[in-house]
Specification:
Rossmann fold; Tyrosyl-Transfer RNA Synthetase; 2 domains; three-stranded parallel beta sheet; two-stranded parallel sheet; 56% helix; binds adenosine-5'-triphosphate; binds magnesium ion
Length: 347
């Protein structure tokens, strides 16, 4: 049997370059390696946990996130793409796991702590939001996932899922598969910063370049990107650390891009050295980055256009994927109910 991969996105907005380097690229490569069975899901229940008052935002973005996944190369013939809320089995699993975690453990989860602060939830945290790592453990274990390709912000959440699996298996007997996070190789891709220089590009933070942005919008966002505030004149020496344009070049630029778009240098180190010495203006570096980003986005936009014009096909993929996922989750739920001893009427 092939090892199983599972990963998901919250339908709180369209997907962006952070998702691309942090998770989407990995999931497409792993899908195409043929070595795994893969599930990708749209985490609408999780999105509602901090968007309960704006369900229309979540509803609209379910299709957007499906389009983003399909347009980067998720292939429904190879990957099961489904919607979390269509699998009620996940909510029942969540119910059993809720008893295995303390409130103080949830409050200590560094990712949840950060996200509570970002959302201004300090005084009143929706219970569903505080407990989303538990529901995420239900998603992962329902599909017997061994590997979960994620960005680094999700590592503490996977760690919490591992604890739940440990507790469950030691209380009720070996039932659940132990999951493991798969992170991108390059550090910069583990958490791509926002265009504003903030630590993370995030849909809820308004600092994203979306995979579906038009070339004009991408150009404008690149041109407005945070650089070195002290690099005022071209001849001034510039700083690389904390300069988002160079962080993005670290994530996306390959030596071959210099051959194509900028013959002045043969690699990024040479360009960085010139910037540090002084004499290289921000606009030049930004134009170079823009061309590289566009090279990635052009084929994605093209594929998206096809699916946007064939939305029936997208809905059919989601219906079929959700049906298939429901069957797998149902099997796990049965095992879990048996292990706990709440399968009363089984012959
Ligand atoms: P939200 O702000 O609503 O939480 P988000 O932008 O964080 O949205 P998610 O749907 O929570 O996106 O994350 C989906 C996946 O993408 C996760 O595996 C997450 O770790 C990864 N990811 C999100 N943002 C980044 C980023 N800036 N760099 C690398 N990976 C990221
Ligand atoms: Mg997030």
């Amino acid at each position: 049997m092939k090892d199983i991969l599972l990963t998901g996105d919250r339908p709180t907005g369209r997907l962006h370059l952070g998702h691309y380097v942090g998770s989407l690229k990995n999931r497409v490569e792993l899908q195409n390696s043929g070595k795994y069975e893969q599930f990708v899901f749209i985490a609408d229940l999780q999105a509602l946990s901090d968007n309960a008052k704006t369900p229309e935002k979540v509803r609209e973005n379910v299709v957007q996130v499906a389009l983003d996944n399909l347009s980067v190369g998720i292939d429904p013939k190879k990957t099961t793409l489904f919607i979390q809320s269509q699998i009620p089995e996940l909510s029942e699993l969540n119910m059993y796991y809720l008893n295995l975690v303390t409130v103080s453990r949830l409050q200590r989860n560094p990712t949840v702590k950060d996200e509570i602060k970002q959302r201004g939830f300090e005084k009143s945290i929706p219970a569903g939001f505080l407990t989303y790592p538990i529901s995420q453990a239900a998603d992962i274990t329902a599909f017997n996932a061994k590997y979960v390709p994620v960005g680094v912000d999700q590592v503490p959440v996977i760690e919490q899922a591992r604890e739940i699996v440990n507790t469950f298996n030691s209380l009720y007997g070996e039932t659940l598969v132990m999951p493991e996070a798969i992170l991108p190789k390059d550090d910069i891709c583990k958490r791509l910063p926002g265009t504003d220089g903030k630590a993370k590009m995030g849909k809820s933070l308004g600092n994203c370049i979306y995979l579906s942005d038009t070339p004009d919008v991408v150009k404008q966002k690149v041109m407005n990107m945070y650089t070195d505030p002290d690099h005022i004149k071209v001849e001034d020496p510039g700083k690389i650390e904390g300069n988002v344009v160079f962080s993005y070049l670290d994530a996306f630029c390959k030596d071959e891009h210099f051959e194509k778009y900028n013959l002045e240098y043969s690699n990024l180190d040479e360009m960085k050295a010139h910037y540090k010495r002084g004499g290289l203006g921000d606009v030049k570096v930004k134009m170079f980055l823009y061309k590289i980003v566009e090279e990635i986005l052009v084929p994605i936009r093209e594929k998206r256009k096809y699916y946007e014009e064939n939305l029936d096909e997208v809905y059919k993929i989601l219906i079929d994927g959700s049906d298939a996922a429901k069957k797998v989750a149902g099997e796990t739920l049965k095992k879990v109910r048996r292990a706990i001893g709440v399968e009363y009427f089984e012959k």
